[in-house]
Every structure is written in C-alpha cells, then in structure tokens.
Amino acid sequence: MSIDRSAELAARVATLDTIAAVLPMDRRDELAELLTDQDIETLRHLVNEGMGANTLRALTSDLAYLQAWSLAATGRSLPWPAPEALLLKFVAHHLWDAEKRLTDPEHGMPADVDDKLRIQGFLRTVGPHAPDTVRRRLATWSTLTTWRGLDGFFGSPALKSALRLAVRATPRPRKRKSAKAVTGDILSRLITTCSTGSLRDIRDRAILMVAFASGGRRRSEIAGLRVEQLQREEPIQVDGAPPLLSLSIHLGRTKTSGADNDEVVYLSGRPVDALNAWLAAANIDKGSVFRAIDRWGNVSRRPLDPKAINDMVKQRVEMAGLDPTEFSAHGLRSGYLTEAANRGIPLPEAMEQSRHRSVQQASQYYNSAQRRSGRAARLMD
C-alpha cells in the first residue's frame, strides 16, 4: 500500500472516530476501506443534524454493503447517481429463483461476487436475499442519492417491474425476529444462570431484567443506554412491604417516536436493584451503562455492541438448557407483551411501557395469548 493511500485511510479512520460515540462500529478499519470520503462526510453531516443513532447505524450498514457489492460486481465504488442498469443488476444479483439456479448456474449472483462478499463477512446465508432487505437497501441508496442533490432512477417502471417479478420468484415465509418469546418463566431461567457474582453475571442479570421490565427494549436501546438517561423517582409504597426503588429511563428519540419526543419508561423493584448492583460493581457513574468486559475482568469504557446483547441472550438460553436457535434479543420485547397479556394487563397500559405505536402490531401478542388460553381453544376440556 502506498504512503498516500495509507495517509488517506488514516484520515478516514480519524473521521469515523469522531462519530463513533453515536455510531458504535466494530468494523471501523473495514469501513474506512469501503466508504469514500464523500460517504464519510455525509455520515458526519447526519450526526451533526441529529439523526437518530439507530437510523444512522442501519444506514451505514446498508451503505457499506452497497459499496462492497459494487466493488465486487463492477470493480468500482458506487457511482452517483447510479445508472438504471446498475440498479437492475443489484436486483438480479439478490432476488432470484432458487430452483432455476439448479439448472442455470449463471442465474442470480455470480459465484465470484458471492465469494468476495462472503470472505468480507457481508454474506452469511445461502440463497436469495429477503425482499424486504433488498427494498430497504434500495431505499437507502435512493435517500443517499437525494441527499447528494442528485436525481436517480429508483422510481423507474423498469426497476419497479423487476422488483415485482423478482419478489414473485423468491417466495419466503414471514418469520418472527425471535421464534419464541422470552416470557416470565423463560426469563427466570435465564436469570438463574447469572448467579456466580462475577462481573459478567452481574451485568447480564441487569441487562435481562432492565430490557424486559422497561417494556422489552430493543437491543440497540439497551446497548446505547447512558447513565445520564437515568433519573431517580420517589420510591413506590407497597402495603406490608418495604418501598420499591423506582427510576425513569429517558429514551429520547426512538425508532417509533417523533423527532422532538422524549420517550420515558419506568423501572421499579428488582430490576432497579439489579441495575444499581451492576453500576456499583463496575464503578460506573457516567457514560455508557452496559459495557464490554475482557477476559481479565476489565470493564471497557465503550458501550456494548447491539449484536453482543443478542449473543448474550443466546448464550444464557443455551446455559439454561434451551435451544438458542429459537430465541434472540427481540424475544425480550415480544416476551414483555406476551407476559402482559398472560397476566391480564390491558393493552394500552402495556403499550405505554413498551412504547409501541401500532395497536395492530402490539395486539398480535395479545391475540395469540388470549386465543391460546381462551374458551374457543378449549372446547374439549
């Protein structure tokens, strides 16, 4: 690598570091290789404009994939604006008929492109992509084109037709993000695995309890949680028992809230105790709440990556003697609503804590719980 090229990459890495607090990245050096100076300047601009961290993280992930695919498929970075032919090529490489591929090896993504993306870690599964993923990446591509003040071909009849036909050729059953919900009984089994008193067990216990009790928070919200978002509240008085510690979590702008809304949820009792135990054990009084722990027991200053939350849930599931392929971090979110339904908590009350905006989406968990235990399912009792 030339000296000029090394200096250029070092400058990109430094620029990425300036937005790392908002956009945690475990592939910083790889992003510096993939993204152009204009790409990185766009990301920094969006940080300064106050774009939500979750949205920015997803946008960066899509942009990195698009750049990697373009380099693998054409040998060049993404052109701005992209010609219609390149958009059609993207669709053809990602949405294809698996049965036709058996008789026509040239159908779909070429083997050399597939190999390059797989080596870089951008492809992990075999087969055509999910239509929603392709649509989302095209939408990201379109948005970035517009932000550059350019006109694209994303609304062209040819692209719309190609997408419609390709989706029809790649039917996929809709799957839940987590096959099974982490309901109260499952959560208790996971928490039981956090019983040694080690820093990791204290942290994981707090993550599980806080994520569930705060309404089933998304893994990105838990990973990005900061001490400054926590506020002590008046203890809750309970008849015949000591008062319960209480605190509020100020989520700020979330995936489903408006731009100016400060979403607030509440914790009380055992989850607050677990959270306080972790903060005390890790000596954390500011900054990121949940952090990585190295093999020697040292607590990092940086927040956990959202993926680490998912990995932890699967690890605890396996330690509890359950199948980790059937659960994910999203199971805490679906599990909260399912447990609320099982306990007869009214849907509007549960949605105040989960911060779901769609009654239709939240009610799916209620409907399933009620149907399972309702009279219509017990006609032969």
The main sheet comes to: 3 strands, antiparallel
Order of helices and strands: HHHHHHHHHHHHEEEHEEHHHH
What structural category characterises the helix and strand content? mainly alpha
Residue fraction in strands: 5-15%
**N- and C-termini, Cα separation:** 74 Å
Q: In one word, what is the shape?
A: elongated
- How many alpha or pi helices? 17
What Rg is obtained from the alpha carbons, in whole angstroms?
23 Å
Mean pLDDT level: 81
Low-confidence stretches: 21-25
User: Residue share in helices?
Assistant: 40-55%
What is the β-strand count? 5
Adjacency order of strands in the biggest sheet = 1-2-3
Record the SSE blueprint.
Layout: H1 3-18, H2 28-34, H3 37-48, H4 53-74, H5 84-94, H6 98-103, H7 111-119, H8 131-147, H9 157-169, H10 184-192, H11 199-213, H12 219-223, E1 230-238, E2 241-252, E3 263-268, H13 270-281, E4 291-293, E5 299-303, H14 306-319, H15 330-342, H16 347-354, H17 359-373
Antiparallel strand pairs: 1-2, 2-3, 4-5
Helix pairs in contact: 1-2, 1-3, 3-4, 4-7, 4-8, 5-9, 11-13, 11-15, 15-16, 15-17
